[in-house]
Amino acid sequence: MKRIFELTLKDIEGMDKNTLIETIKNSEGRTVMAETVITVPPLIYGVSNLELAAAFGSDMITLNLFDFQRPFIFGIDDVGVNLSDVAGALSMMEEIALKNAKDTEYVKKIKKIVGRFIGVNLEPVPEGVKYVEGRKLTEENLKRAREYGFDYIVITGNPNTGVNETTVIQGIELAKKILGDKLMIVAGKMHGAGSGNIYDDKVLRDFVKAGADCVLIPAPGTVPGIDLDLAKKQIDAIHEEGALAMTAIGTSQEGAQKSVIEYIAIQSKMAGADIQHIGDAGYSGVAFPENIMALSIAIRGVRHTYRRMAYSLNK
């Protein structure tokens, strides 16, 4: 079996959930996930943040603020839109987004452009919290995620959404019911999200029991109190329940100096992380590209990083 940084587009397109999970396990803690905000113009004109993250070493790319009712990715869908004509641009983008919503091949087409596993954040916000319907974890949005061809979903909460451990468990249970074995389910909290951090490993075990294939925790050094010892204890608990573990940099430290990223990466690897996530808060909806590469090099060296960066989509 190939390791994740050896996969070509053909490998990725033909891979089911269970094989993806085994591939990540076989990669021995050397899987990189980058998150991107897709609702803002990209960091580099003419290149989407997804493509940029892929070019700098990501194996998996998670879309943040993706709206299932109006899918639109800046850097891809806005090609040909004259943004200087505000009224005309808004009208054209709305038209494109509504057309995308009806296209069940939409994400599969994105995957052909990017050449990586593509996932999406879905947020189990509590009742009464005002939030965009297309971004919520609902039965309708889960069905669309399955139809569009996403490889995985991430059940978590953006800042100030009020997402908590109870709503995450409810979200996992609903996702498992709708998705079955079609998509990998990643769940957990990268930071407080307005309701506090999770320190009790029993909660993480409950996430697995509810149906999560991978549980995420804050990477050591990213939220107060999460150090190597606690991260290792939490990851050991996740592994004991039979799930993958992912550490996440979701506290804007993706915009820190490379030495911080390298330190977090090695700490996460020592703790036993199967996947290492780097967030979207650098400039304009993506981590500093150099930091994505620094994370990759720290956990798998230049040989495998450059392999991932250089693989042709047409192989």
Automatic annotation (TrEMBL):
The lineage of its organism: Bacteria, Bacillati, Bacillota, Clostridia, Thermoanaerobacterales. This is DUF7916 domain-containing protein. It comes from the Bacteria. It holds the Pfam family DUF7916. It comes from Caldanaerobacter subterraneus subsp. tengcongensis (strain DSM 15242 / JCM 11007 / NBRC 100824 / MB4) (Thermoanaerobacter tengcongensis). SUPFAM superfamilies: Inosine monophosphate dehydrogenase (IMPDH). Residues 6-315 form the DUF7916 domain.
